[in-house]
Amino acid sequence: MGMSEEPKKKMEESEMTPSDVKQVDESTLGITWPDGHESVYPVKLLREKCPCAHCIDEWTGEKKIKPGMIPDTIRPLKIKAVGLYALQFDWNDGHSTGLYPYELLRRLCQCGECKTQNAA
């Protein structure tokens, strides 16, 4: 096996830890990743994709948030890093139990490049 044939390794936690998290505008969040990728997210989408047990049934995996349940006025009041693996949002609807692993956030990226890849 030559030097260029290294097996693809899983990203290390430090490679997944955002280098920057910023509010682009009142309804959009931006995350810059260590590989330079700039992700964008409508905050309403993030709230709808909350992975906590209040929002997703632990046993069936069924989403408890139905279309239209989250208002367009949803905003994160506070965003905090949890260890080296997730972000936690305090939302203006009082919800704050969801931990968003960086891997999930990267998959949810709504930039043009990622949306094209995810549609393929």
Automatic annotation (TrEMBL):
GO molecular function ontology, one term from the record: metal ion binding
Transmembrane segments: none
UniProt domain Gamma-butyrobetaine hydroxylase-like N-terminal: residue ranges: 24-106
Basic and acidic residues composition-biased segments: 1-13
Sequence segments annotated as region (Disordered): 1-30
Gene3D superfamilies in UniProt: 3.30.2020.30
Signal peptide: none
Keyword entries, A-Z: Iron, Metal-binding
Domain of life: Bacteria
InterPro entries cross-referenced by the UniProt entry: GBBH-like_N, GBBH-like_N_sf
Name of the protein in question: Gamma-butyrobetaine hydroxylase-like N-terminal domain-containing protein
